[in-house]
Amino acid sequence: MSFENITLEDIVRKLKDARRVLIACHTNPDGDALGSCAALALTAEALGCEVKVVSPDKPAPRLEFLLRDEYTEFKAGREENFDLICTVDVASYEQLGSLGFLVDRGRVDFMIDHHAEGTPYAPCYIDPVASAAGEIVYDVYRTAQEMYGFDNVPDVSRNVYTAIISDTGSFKYSNVTPDTHIIASELVEEINTAEDGGMTTDEICRTLFGRRTMSDLLAQALAINKLKVYEDGRLGIVFLTKEDVTSAGLEESDFGAAVETPRSLEGVEIALSVRQSFSDPTVYRVSSRSNCDVNVSDICASFGGGGHAKAAGCKISAKTPEEALSIAIGAFGGALSL
What we know:
- The chain has two domains: 8-208, inorganic pyrophosphatase (n-terminal core) (Alpha-Beta Complex); 214-336, Diaminopimelate Epimerase, Chain A, domain 1, CATH 3.10.310.
- It is an alpha/beta fold.
- Helix 1 (8-17) packs across helix 4, helix 2 (31-46) runs antiparallel to helix 5 and helix 5 packs parallel to helix 7.
- The strands form two sheets. The chain has a six-stranded mixed beta sheet. A five-stranded parallel beta sheet has the order 2-1-3-4-5, with helices on one face.
- The chain contains twelve helices and eleven strands.
- The radius of gyration is 20 Å and the shape is globular.
- Helix 3 links the parallel strand 3 (84-88) and strand 4 (110-113).
């Protein structure tokens, strides 16, 4: 099924015409997903809407400062209270997780995304050149200001800045473009000169990258302990079962950055974290990163997932952990031998 492409102006008009708006993000939300959703919510509020942001999974503690609403499970039926529903940073139906019923019921009015390898499920604005969904939301915000003339909202800038530095690894990744730096420079100026007493850019960075909870450190230690390499050291995998996580007194949400452990290991060309789902032990969540020319999004797409050439995710179904690991090694390790 194909869906129409919409413009920034279309998005703004849809928001302006709405009374109550629901904004949803993807499973295991990261800084881009939450920051972008929060920025779009503030933009919609500036246009006169009542807004709620929902996530299919509980965010990691270090990202809780981005939450507009306390995390709660959002169930079918409650969407009837909203006259406009959209998603941000969700590349495919599968990435909505427990919120997939929004698509099943035809309730998603539009989607905003920046993944080149996604599968649209609603009218869409997709810009694969954007380093983060936050860049697109920033364009929506500026377009809304041009069309309806409201003042700057400092927290929009803070949330967009958070989204961008999260998805670019503080501007380290190959998805950074000249426009990314231009937008970031505008955001830094607005954030650090704002007089509302909100967070400055250095405080945002310290919150995201410079503060570690005991759970963060325990999760990193477990990830290091579980790291193994294959394909002559070119494939690094952190493989975690539900028992591994619970026996350490941790939760699924503590391991959102686990893939960074193998990614940083010298000689690793493809890095994976493979985590057994708490809700369904036959499902394993895969987060992949490429340090080479292999497009991991293509591999993830074969499992119903997707993302970017250098960073993508998917789910593997397997009866046992051993089978899941074998499938992951075969798919990603096989790509290294081509």
